[in-house]
Amino acid sequence: MALAPIALTCGEPAGIGPEIAVKARARLGQDVPFFWIGAPRHLPAGTAIREIDDPAEAAAVPTALLPVIAHDFPAPARPGLPAPENAAAVIETIARAVDFVRDGAASAICTAPIHKKALKDGAGFGFPGHTEYLAHLAGTERVAMMLACDELKVVPATIHIPLTEVPRALTEEVLETAIRLTHAGLRRDFAVAEPRLAVAGLNPHAGEEGAMGDEEIRLIRPLLDRLRAEGMTISGPHSADTMFHPAARARYDAAICMYHDQALIPIKTIDFAGGVNVTLGLPFVRTSPDHGTALDIAGRGAADPSSLIAALQLARDMARNREAG
């Protein structure tokens, strides 16, 4: 049985989202069926589209056309200049995608980048980003952000907070949640029957037995011992500077890191254009390209769709794994 198509939200209309959606359709064709939710007039001039009323119609749309479920926006899209009047509609497209996937009309959601300040200024958006808003819509309390490419999967236990706040935010509950969501996500969404996890330390050299911090001894190691006793295959805490070379990566399926840059620097070094943002813990599949709205190059035709293409392909594969499981 064929999967339902993927719902691709428009993201910030003044950014590169509309442009890379068109480029992704041109490259993927019917290999990854998806439909775009947004205002047709926000797409690049000359884009060939087919407006549809039902996601099920997307599969029959010729490859040369972009299947579009039209959503009304009050203002035009001016490249590089987000319009506050459009903020509420951007948020509505995300909620609409969730409705589609909950109803089974879509197999997964892929979200184009949003401009969080524009949403806050224009619509009082009260969430730090997509992840938290999707968790709210799904009624899910605990989610985690995974960054994935072919060579590496990483999950930061803490995300968008100042580095000075990480030691205080890194509690046993926070770290355990990240580990358990990663373990479950690898099994359900990536078809890894027996996940192997590697956990970084917080401090240089993983604290060097307390010489450079005691979080590894006091917090991380006891938690890992407890999870290993439950049967998890989990190693660490490791010195983060030795975790990401090829031989080290071959020994695990995903790495759990303690803070944002510890996780994102290695994956963006390994595959800057092809990384994908995955939300673990949701009752549906959600992926996103691992970049922002790129307002500085919007409208120039120069945006690279590689990360969006990878995000759509991964969403398809994850949806298949969930269905098979």
Automatic annotation (TrEMBL):
Q: Name one GO biological process term.
A: pyridoxal phosphate biosynthetic process
Pathway as given in its UniProt record: Cofactor biosynthesis; pyridoxine 5'-phosphate biosynthesis; pyridoxine 5'-phosphate from D-erythrose 4-phosphate: step 4/5
| Binding-site list for a divalent metal cation | H160, H205, H260
Q: Where in the cell is it found?
A: Cytoplasm
Q: Is NADP one of the keywords UniProt gives this record?
A: yes
Q: Which domain of life is it from?
A: Bacteria
The chemistry this enzyme catalyses reads: 4-(phosphooxy)-L-threonine + NAD(+) = 3-amino-2-oxopropyl phosphate + CO2 + NADH
Looking at its record, which EC class is this enzyme?
oxidoreductase
Residue numbers binding substrate: H130, T131, K268, N277, R286
Misc. remarks from the entry: The active site is located at the dimer interface.
Protein name per the record: 4-hydroxythreonine-4-phosphate dehydrogenase
